[in-house]
């Protein structure tokens, strides 16, 4: 097996293990959020809010906001501590990974690694503002405070009972508490965890590549071969960029796309590339990209993933899988609409009769 193939296999194995790290972090965060449910319920279990004087209601809303801020702040503080540890672990992994070439790679200082994860913005869609982790965390905290307080204000104005407001916030047992607005908070928390871990994973490894730019020439995108992969990641799969250029995952919230370092040919050595990569239905050759893999699946699955029109274009448009991939994104690596594709590639639509 070639050195590049060994590095590819180690990288994919690490990406799989990283999904387990995300699960552990999500579990810990959800346990902390369960405390918020209990605290809000206790705070709304006294006198009916509709009967409170304006000054007392204002004080209660301030206390509720403070509780949400404190719990989410504690959650984020715990996550940030864990992210630092994950960053160091990912840097150690990448140094070990590159050592396969037969030299001792340089490990950047902790300061450089932490600076990369904290000061390089997330490229993920759905992240507003400057895209920095700290700003993202602060925005989510503020938004959730506003959401809970708004439900209480509206409940009072509508004459709802405390119990009705509790149900709107926490949810009902009949629906396993998934019908309250805190379910949105839980989803937001899971988004934060999965996205920030993926960002730290990418930035820590990027810092190692920059420190070893004599070993690493390029970075290749590697998407997950299943039906849940986003349109962006499907088309990014297999793309290569110089280590100082191009985007890095996460490309959207909960992104699972990882990256593989492409080794300089003077270190690559000899050996047959017999490595494989995982897919939802077994191992496939490592050189198989997303749309090549998708073409091996059933027509029904293709249409489920792409929609019937794009599925027909892939199968019958007279183009290769990689040409199809290049049609899906604009110059900013954002998905383009079918209408825009039809304007740009009318001959493909004509051949596919789509």
TrEMBL record:
Residues 148-259 form the Phage head morphogenesis domain. It holds the Pfam family Phage_Mu_F. InterPro entries: Phage_head_morphogenesis_dom, Phage_head_put. This is Phage head morphogenesis protein.
